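Support reply, case 0932

Customer input (verbatim):
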Amino acid sequence: MKNARFLNAVLIFPRASMAALAGVLASLLAGLPAATLSYAAQSPPTSVSPVVGAAQVVDGDTFDVAGQRIRLEGIDAPEATQACLDASARSWPCGRRATAELRRLTAGQPVTCHSRGQDKYQRLLAMCFVNGLNINEAMVRRGYAWAFVKYSTEFADLEAEARRASAGVWQGTAQAPWDYRRNEWTVAEAAAPTGCAIKGNISDNGQIYHVPWSAWYDRVRIDEAQGERWFCTEDAAIAAGWRAAISY
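Our regenerated output:
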């Protein structure tokens, strides 16, 4: 009888300990701030194998590899049309410089991108490397991209280092890309005849839509008689068969 009671105690103790440990872990995980999680974490990876190939740079945080549009996860570079101020308050094209820096980092070398998921535009959100260099980190460290803290704080410390070093956009005054996009949208929305700011253009390259911060936005004229359209959201443009301009 004593042996039976002893055996029961031995069997019961690990179960209780495991339950307690699970409770502690659950509490700790519940306390983590949502901002520490990647915005791609809720979307399962589209492939197990990395995407490898030459990069065709679109802008400071986007390129095409092996036919796949890649969005560098956790960072946000200035838009192609965006300007910043240097230490002497002189304007310089920080958006074009960011694009040039990403092109320089990837030129002539295969890029390897590891999926973190997909966004709603079917772009692969990824951490990418060239010759062992983490491209996402390099763009932030060199001051050509912000840590995209709305979705991830992964590169917040690197951004702080770049700020202290006055690197890239931090040499003077710079507007965060998300603020720049919001302001451009507000201006374009007010000027659009329908109140919808996205231009759905038809050209030799097919049906292309332009958001207010894209490089060709101001040059595009919409001719509704030719089937061109205005869209209120990118989702609506994509659903109608339009694709984003390459400068986006």
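We compared this against your earlier run and they match. Two observations from our side: The two ends are 76 Å apart (CA to CA). Helices lie at 2-30, 94-106, 135-141, 156-164, 177-191, 234-239. Please reopen the case if you see a mismatch on your end.
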